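Example is below:
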Amino acid sequence: MGLLLRWMYVAPISGVNFQFLMHGHSHVAMLGWVYLMLYCLIFHFFVPKQAQEKPAYNRLFWVTEVAVLGMMIDFPAQGYAFASILFSTAHIFCSYFFCYLIWKDAQPSTLPEKKMLHTALFFMIFSTLGVWCLGPAVGLMGKASAFYQIAIQFFLHFQFNGWYLFAVLALFFKQFHLKIDKVKFNTFYHLFVSATLLTLALPISWSLANPIFYWINAIGIVIQLITALAFIHIIRPQWQAFFDSMSWPEKTIYFLTLFSLALKIIIQLVVLVPELAQISHNIRNFVLGYVHLTMLGIITGFLFGLAFQNHFLNAKKSILKWGTFLFFSGFLITEFLLFHQGIWFFMHKGIATNYYLNLFLSSMLLPAGLLLIIIAIFKQKSKLI
């Protein structure tokens, strides 16, 4: 769907609604790929074997899968309509039940694991307050209102920066068994939560022009920078051991993930300049580049790294190496093109030569890489059977 969206800029297809397709793409990427991957990894790493035998987890997974498939089919066809809203709502209730099961059954072995996991689940539920506000927002003020836009940004912010990032870090602490001083971790944790809450002010400022939101976001970004430095301070003594046990594909993926995280923080520091903060929102290329940096570079990068490290994906298989290489090459090239074009718009230079065609061609690497990975997984599964 993402590739088709890119093609629509090259040669629009009659009968295909761009906005509807974009809704399908975003819902499936977030609630299909990332959500279901986190579902499986949290279940695998945190739920003890005895509790894993409960049929509720397997049944809930497939009900959730049906909800995702419903959104995948109906959003491109109708956009926000009865069926798509029904499937979206079903997914939300599935996520609530998942939170209940994990909160009850999960047995994190350390304080960092426990706090990060529970906070991730909290932010998942908290983010859905934005979804429940969409109906009243449309009914009272319409889709063009600030209330409606803020409700959407509220959901997206706490999904990406709350649920996803905290869940990823919970898995990180579980995977690497880091020995962390309790006081240092608590400092890092409280800074991280504060930064996550305060940086909501930036997307709010896009709809409500008030200087107070700029300053709240500025404080949040500074705290976020301190949080990143605190995290580096925590893991630095065990950094060498962290990387020594990895194969080169794992090291490469984790390096790309950490690089993407650093770049995300740098971009947020740059938009502290008030003029750039507004421009960054108005130039769509910057918005898309930033969203994909978080989704593909940080979240997906870590999930792939974790999959390789635990041999869910076999790093020795050449088809998997090629699939991963193509996928992340597509990510890097498309990110360069998006931000490069954004800078050109900022400098009033217009559209770069063959920009949309080049973006489409480089985007082909993403599904091509994923296709190779899927083939490798099915080949591996058939051998196990």
Q: What stands out?
A: The first helix runs from residue 2 to 10. The CA atoms of residues 67 and 91 lie 6 Å apart. The chain is about 85% helix and 0% strand. The two ends are 32 Å apart (CA to CA).
